[in-house]
Amino acid sequence: MKRWWTSLFFLLLILAMLPALVVIGAALFLARMMTRPRRLPLWHTPRDVGLDYEAVHFDSDDGLYLDGWFIPAPGDGPRPAVVIAHGWPWNRAGTPAQDFFARLTQSPPIDLLRPAQALHQAGFHVLMFDFRNHGLSGSVPYLTFGRDEAADLMGAVRYLRQRPDVDPARVGVLGFSMGGNAVVFACARDEEQAIRAAVAVQPVRPSVFAPRFAATLLGPLAEPTLRLALRLYHRAGGPLLEEVDPTLVGDLVSTPILYLQGNGDPWGTVRDVRRLYEQATGPKQLKIVPTQDRYGGYLYLGDHPEEMVAFFQEHL
What we know:
It is built from ten helices and ten strands.
């Protein structure tokens, strides 16, 4: 009988500790995703969809090695060009949605070669590259979900403007999620007006995104898990999420910009993207599309690239 009570005691103790163990494990995982996420392989290349390309590399504005693909437009002479900036935690090609994180978040494959093809067919050079801590690019201690990554995007723009086959006065940027945030931060600090047109797909306020995202994954354990994950993130040097909010600089954006947001996004909000749109001081457009989840907003441009292409044609 004594042995039975002892076994029951330890079983109850383990059950009591289980939520704490889940919180600790999930917090460690989230902190890793916020600092140095697992790098996805380059699951396909432009050649797989019939596009020639050059493997290129260049430096970010703060000196970090960046790796990418340059897809030349048909025709002779300097041409307009568009940089495609991927989301977190993808790479330049998007995500094949075969890793644990993609399965956890129920992500479909996101193929960034689809908008690249549309831009190429419209006569634009296209540069696709990996952000810091993603793909084949260099490493830093932590991510900032667009603020510091804007230095990567500006490095890509600078690289394009130095190429003899690119018209330096006709360079645009297209960013998804974290890449959309980087678009906002880059345009806000672009004193030379090197970026002549921008499209930001579902940029987010990280302080809004993070608790919503955690709640989807962890339910009632989200709040303590996120609190611990952020503590670990800050210990690695990461800033407060409120400090990397794109709405802090949205009113500095005078670049012609198109914002796109899905109305069924559970982690970002139409309200925040509308606020960014209202803050912009130059030519601007806002496109709200019907979606069932966050991913529908990403997929929209692959399915319906016409408005994006027309926007770049108008402003480049």
